[in-house]
Design brief:
With 457 residues, the chain is an alpha+beta fold. Helix content is 32%, strand content 28%. The chain has 13 helices and 20 strands. Strands 10, 11, 12, 13, 14, 15, 16, 19 and 20 form a nine-stranded mixed beta sheet that branches. Strands 1, 2, 3, 4, 5, 6 and 7 form a seven-stranded mixed beta sheet that branches. Helix 3 packs antiparallel against helix 7. It is elongated, with a radius of gyration of 30 Å.
């Protein structure tokens, strides 16, 4: 081969090699050197995983620009972050380059404490300029509702951003007077697009929800700076049991117009003492990790009049017997309460009663029995046993006397079981052995066991 031809061939090889190296350098800088996923399919296009990651990244850039203090609230992503999942990461995660944020779902949920951000509608306009379709959902502010005011002004509840088939949900969490965070229910207005987002697949919005304030930590997930709850498992547990019921202020107002509340100094003092006792009870049982709900007359007061019944003269709570702890009596005594009586036993009809500042706290333990649950009652002087039967129920959060408490979600069924169809009419004369609609005779305690099963102090 002539020398000129050999030189040209060598030159072409050098040029081709340089072009190839430059292409590799470009590819490295464009994709590989950037954090996060960078997977191409066989045709050289970005995968759906990468598109999802890019969507989250684009949203987080907007959030940072507008100082939107969001944290990751997506249950699927947080589940992948749990300690148990991390131990099995190689088996659970199919996409190593986007291990947490690419969950395979079409939506990623974030949340923020509304008190930490001054509302700026410019973020939605900026999102549209970035190619997002946006939707803002508003609802009435329940913090402004009450017996005197039945409707509050509207507040933002949710943002939705959509691009390339993926959605971002932003949940606004508001401070409530009971020292907890609340989000509203997602209710579309008639003019809104029902197909804008996969609403049936959302983690948040089916019902209002209540949460403790989560402690947040800043971390790096799939190459992105994101705040997450420090205690992920606690947050996920709360999310599963967050359903919240607001008091029916309109019905309560109508009730109080028919039956005005007692405003005497004695009634005012009683309400003050009940509030103090309820808060003390909640703190004591929280230390024991024992869930409870307001029951009997205390539950009726919340449901019927958004307050307590001033002539009831006690506080009633329920606890499932499965949550009983042997140190519960000691815990209440150390909190300053005096044990008034202890009836029954753990296996049957256990009931505790304490006194604090002249107010009685009755703790009824509930037993599961097929399709119903029941609590027991004991007449101390005769040893007679009684049983109060309720349909099964789940627990929801509510607020009473500036305290977040549990109530039966199926509140009307619960109240009607105990008080019958006339529950909305006050009854000052009440016999616990015969007045309840759900009471049944349940035999007698053997006299030989009275010393152990009927203890009055």
């Amino acid at each position: 081969m002539p020398r000129v031809s050999r030189t040209m061939v060598l030159s072409l090889l050098v040029v081709s090699s340089c072009v190839f190296l430059l292409f590799q350098l470009y590819y490295y800088r464009k994709y590989v050197s950037k954090p996060g996923p960078h997977i191409l399919n066989q045709s050289g296009h970005l995968t759906t995983t990468d598109v999802q990651w890019q969507t989250v990244k684009k949203f987080l850039v907007l959030a940072q620009r507008f100082r939107l203090p969001v944290f990751l609230a997506d249950t699927a992503a947080l589940t992948l972050l749990s300690q148990d999942a991390l131990r099995q990461r190689d088996r659970l995660v199919h996409e190593p380059h986007c291990s947490f944020l690419c969950t395979g779902r079409p939506v990623t949920s974030f949340a923020l404490r509304a008190s930490q951000w001054k509302y700026n509608p410019g973020i939605l306009l900026a999102a549209e300029q970035k190619g997002f379709d946006v939707m803002e959902l508003r609802g009435e502010d329940p913090r402004l509702a009450g017996l005197d005011t039945l409707s509050g002004e509207e507040i933002p509840l949710y943002f939705f951003l959509h691009i390339h088939g993926y959605h971002i949900q932003v949940v606004f969490l508001y401070e409530r007077s009971g020292n907890y965070l609340w989000h509203g229910a997602l209710r579309l207005k008639s003019h809104m697009d029902l197909n804008f987002a996969p609403f049936k697949q959302l983690d948040y919005g089916r019902d209002p929800g209540a949460y403790d304030r989560p402690e947040l930590v800043l971390t790096v997930l799939d190459g992105l700076d994101i705040q997450i709850p420090r205690n992920i498992s606690h947050f996920l547990t709360q999310q599963r049991h967050a359903r919240f019921l607001d008091c029916h202020y309109r019905e309560a107002r109508n009730f109080l117009q028919l039956y005005p509340d007692d405003s005497s100094p004695e009634a005012v003092d009683f309400r003050r003492k009940v509030k103090s006792l309820l808060h003390l009870t909640s703190r004591t049982l929280a230390l024991l990790n024992i869930p409870f709900w307001i029951s009997s007359g205390t539950c009726l007061g919340w449901f019927r009049q958004c307050s307590i019944i001033s002539y009831s003269q006690d506080v009633d709570i329920g606890i499932f017997i499965a949550d009983f702890r042997s140190d519960i009596i000691t815990a209440f005594q150390e909190a300053g309460l005096l044990l008034k009586h202890k009836f029954g036993k753990v296996e049957d009809s256990l009931e505790l009663s304490f006194i604090s500042d002249g107010i009685k706290l009755d703790i009824f333990f509930f037993y599961e029995d097929g399709d119903v649950v029941w609590n027991g009652g004991t007449q101390a002087k005769s040893g007679r046993k009684f049983k109060y039967i309720f349909p099964r129920f789940s627990l929801c959060w509510a607020e009473l006397l500036e305290l977040k408490v549990h109530v039966p979600c199926e509140t009307l069924d619960y109240v009607m079981a105990n008080y019958g169809a006339s529950w909305s009419v006050p009854m000052r004369s009440w016999d616990w052995k015969s007045s309840p609609s759900n009471v049944q005779e349940n035999g007698m305690w053997p006299p030989s066991e009275w010393a152990e099963l009927i203890q009055v102090y």
